Amino acid sequence: MNQKTISHLRRLLCCVVVTLLILPSCTFVQAQERDNAVILVYHHVSTQTPPSTSISPEQFAAHLAHINEHHVVLPLDVLVNSLKTGQVLPDKAIAITFDDGYRNILENAHPLLQQYNMPYTIFINPPEIGVRRDQLTWSEVKRMSQEGVLFANHTMDHAHLLSRKENETEAQWLTRTMQNIRAAEAMITEQLDYSLKYLAYPFGEFNFKLRDALLADGYIGFAQHSGAVSSSSDFGAIPRFPSAGIYANLNTLKTKLNSMALNVSNPSDPMFALGAQPEISLELNQTQPKASQVTCFYRNEVITTTTQGQILSFTVPEPLEAGRSRVNCTAPSTVPGRFHWYSQPFFVADENGHYPD
Question: Name one GO molecular function term (predicted).
Fold first, then answer.
């Protein structure tokens, strides 16, 4: 049985399982809950790797034990396809993803995920597989794929995609970037005999020019700003909750795992100039919650917002520094103990046009 057949059978089986999970609960679960999901992103599962992108095996095991008791874990493709086609999901559905094909995922995370029979996805840089010592080999990737792990595109070289070369025009930058993405996808397809056309933006960085080109080419984009996902989400920049480093605390993760999307019809391009103080207006394309119920935070501090009907407006309270930041906006749901969540990211180059790691 070849890899493509195995992958197809796995998807069919999961769709049957999802249907069985949903049917008993349809009478009791509100429609908005069945149109929501949460996607988690990890990098390292190790105590020997950079703390900012790492979670210890013990912490990761605690995450999975809680998830196993309170949530339904779906393959990323099943979750995304269900949302795109308007199919209902189980309540509290989640997907688990990893960025970068680190060997410690196989050594420390894979056995735990297999123990719970939890599907997951790894976004890889194909030229680094089997080359860097801290990366998986293609033999390991293929074995994990046979065991139900999905592999997807993280570009050829994990570069900052918004960075331009000297004297490079916007059109030249976009052509070069899309060539990079397509080349990585071709390598994955050659090795695994399937192509999801899913891209995780390195460092979570994107702008609307890149997002639109990605969508036009048939891809789905995954970012790293926080928030839940629904059928109304931007499928060129799907939010994922970072779950390692300072975000590994299980108590705070529980709130995120239970979150639902705060849907807006006019997301703002996240690419800004150094020192800008963006003025953002977001139009909620849902009647609940009310815009007046939304609270927004910048660097963990509440910021001033104004509302007019379902339009929520705010100004970032200080000039943006080089790097990545975001405003998180949340509002209570009609479901007790659960919150709607939306994140507006900001990506800013330094004075030399470089994006810091």
Answer: hydrolase activity
